[in-house]
Amino acid sequence: MSSKRYTDEFKIEAVRQVTDRGFKVAEVAQRLGITTHSLYAWLRKFGKPGVVQRAEVDQSAEVRRLKSELRRVTEERDIPKKGRRVLCQGVKAKYAFMQAHREEFRVCAMCRVLRVNRAGYYAWLKSPDSERAKEDERLLGLIKHHWLASGSVYGHRKIAKDLRDLGERCSRHRVHRLMRADGLRAQVGYGRKPHFHGGTPCKAAANLLDRQFDVTEPDTAWASDFTFICTQEGWMYLAVVIDLFSRQVVGWAMRDRADTELVVQALLSAVWRRKPSAGCLVHSDQKSVYTSDDWHSFLASHGLVCSMSRPGNCHDNAPVESFFGLLKRERIRRRIYPTKDAARAEVFDYIEMFYNPQRRHGSTGDLSPVEFERRYAQRGS
């Protein structure tokens, strides 16, 4: 069997995880499912000045001064917002608030805003706490770690399962209480306006998938679709291919045009990675790019079977719609991208560094797609 192939864009983004984001080579290779030898080869090829952006130069003293002033003003604005409940309470309540937010705000700033003595705060820290309070504080540190590692999107149920995987004995109700007290919240969904499309596609295939989203083997049924991402340089379009067995994104591509080449490149990426057997079902909706001659020719040349949703029925392609909802809720709608390259890097980080190897999925028993496939392979060996 031939080895997997990757695009140059994929390789450059993988290199950036090491050179720009500070990940170790072994960690990036493990998350992306590649060998360290391949990643070192990509580093030698693409890790040159001009290809991978270097870290920004140190800021001038004036910029540092302005940042310090901005931090002070921000603290004086945000501390009363988060601590409004303790402003009229006793000193111990204010000390407890300061301890809970000491990683977010400076102690000197909180003392100034809450009008308490710093020496008194440190003396209060030395007083013995109950064992329950100490255990809550330790658990809260673990909760914050997993919450931040999820991109600030996990709720108390998923974090409780993360803690149980580490051997911690705590209920999800306790995790919920600690998260609520510290202001840690899960990302929730968002509404969007319905769209109506008319017309008849030229080459519509039958709905062979028929909402049978729970498949028993990998690479037997894939689903594809594309969405748009707004940047300050213009629109970018993202096409993905998802294996319905594990909900893993097995192929994706980004372009500044929503044309047939976009969806074909995403499917080609999936074929390179997975090498599916003939007869693998590829489901999509009836957009013009999926009814084009190029799309159908590509499917036929690789032994793939075409399946399409009914006109105007997004529920027939629910797994991909769900993935796009997660992507937009957890990343895209939370920031504005200055460049198209920044959007591409964010999508790479979400799919390859978080969603596939780490993010728990309800349809796979709260396992990540990669872990779900790994356990399936172990059972078959």
From TrEMBL:
It comes from the Bacteria. InterPro entries: Homeodomain-like_sf (IPR009057), HTH-like_dom (IPR025948), Integrase_cat-core (IPR001584), RNaseH-like_sf (IPR012337), RNaseH_sf (IPR036397), Transpos_IS3 (IPR048020), Transposase_8 (IPR002514), Transposase_IS3/IS150/IS904 (IPR050900). Signal peptide: none annotated. GO terms for molecular function: DNA binding; transposase activity. Residues 214-377 form the Integrase catalytic domain. One of its GO terms (biological process) is DNA transposition. PANTHER family: TRANSPOSASE INSF FOR INSERTION SEQUENCE IS3B-RELATED, TRANSPOSASE INSO FOR INSERTION SEQUENCE ELEMENT IS911B-RELATED. Belongs to the transposase 8 family. This is IS3 family transposase. It comes from Xanthomonas melonis.
